[in-house]
Amino acid sequence: MSRAIYPGSFDPVTFGHLDIIKRSSAMFDEVVVGVLNNNAKNPLFSTKERKEMLEESVKEFGNVEVISFDGLLIDFMKQNDISVIVRGLRAITDFDYELQIAQSNRKVSKETIDTVFLTTSIDYAYLSSSIVREYASYGTDVSDFVPEFVVKRLENRFQQ
Ligand code: PNS
What we know:
Layout: E1 3-8, H1 15-27, E2 30-36, H2 47-58, E3 64-69, H3 73-79, E4 84-89, H4 92-108, E5 114-119, H5 129-137, H6 148-159
Parallel strand pairs: 1-2, 1-4, 2-3, 4-5
């Protein structure tokens, strides 16, 4: 059985992430969406909130599970018998960083894991969670970027 992990901060999940999840769910038997539990990044949404929004977003896919993880991604993968990482590439600006992480993960895992890159759909090439947070913080409508229940959570967060 092929199992892959799509790791990220997902602060919050966007239509760009959901496009990658949908496409990877068609490529692998099981996809784990791994939400990084990382307080150092000072996220807008807690890990629990980010996980809830992802769970709501992926419920139409029978083979996608959302799990939060701490520590090194490759350790989590070993513990859960996963050998493939999926990442989205939006533009050349993503490439340097992604290549470095993919190569170091491969080296440190003693070449037991691989990273598969999916090119982001043109519709979402410009999209990132940080852009969504920035617009939402000024009260701009972000419903083109994220599902409606995420829009509501952003509105609530920035009203507080
Ligand atoms: O959505 P992001 O913030 O670009 O995702 C980055 C992520 C979560 C994939 C990366 O930071 C990660 O794997 N962190 C876990 C810690 C780890 O394994 N570090 C070694 C590679 S940087």
